[in-house]
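Subject: Sanity check before I submit

Could someone independently write out the structure tokens for this chain? I want to compare against mine line by line before I put it in a report. The sequence has 291 residues.
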Amino acid sequence: MPRRTTAGRRASSCTSFNPLAVPGSPEFGLLYVAVADGGSGGDPLNLAQNLGSPFGKLLRIDPLGSNSANRKYGIPAGNPFAGKRDVLGEIYAYGVRNPQRFGWDPRTGNLFVADIGQNIVEELSLVRAGANLGWNKWEGSFGYISRQAVDLSKRRADPSVTYPVVEYDHRDPVLLEGDSAITGVHVYRHDAIPQLANLVLFSDFPSGEIFYIPADTLPNGGQDAIRRVLLDAGGGPKTLLQLIREKNARQGKSPASRADLRFGAARDGRVFLLNKHDGTIRLLVPGRVSS
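---
Independent answer below. Compare away.
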């Protein structure tokens, strides 16, 4: 589960090279590394806001360089904190809790990160170099109080923080009760599936719900702009978890309690749905839209 690591501490990470970078450009060959805050609930060590720690950060390094402290990799000169005293030059952005996945818009170059919240708010954010995404002072657009509460009175009140483009509440009835974690992200700029064109796709990891927002008119927080993608594999629109459970029945297995959804994508516009529970990789194809 994305919320758990050994001894209840999060140190999970995901990595990617920018697929839009071309040979000879300053971005080419730089590796992005998203690292969780490393703590138990609420980031008690305040690492996500500590610019001297790699935890709770999106890092950018040059694997072929050698100007890091241990000389094993490089720190790009274009990083926002490169060369500053008492700050890790590897940091590209900070203030994340558990950045499950991130991805780029192939048309605009926008970088989005899906960041798992504590117990209340899941968020999708647009990331710029040097951005502070707020954790652990903020959970989504709201002041963080505890695992049970956020402060609704001062929504998006700090102008120095980059708040989510959209966010959603764990209590939303389409989600699995008491179990929610955002993942993604895939920006679809292709015509192979017209219904998905120019959309930012993301999902809820446990429930298998697939969501989208428009890529060209990004929202400014909240969840009103979020729409669902339902799947038609015969018999009407269904969620991925419903399809997994149908496959489980044919396999003679107990129905899965969660989907554990991942996206896969190909350059030709194909989009794949992966999960851990029925041994099936599904390919999205054009169909009708339900929202």
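---
OP: Matches mine. For the report I'm noting this point. The helical segments are 240-251.
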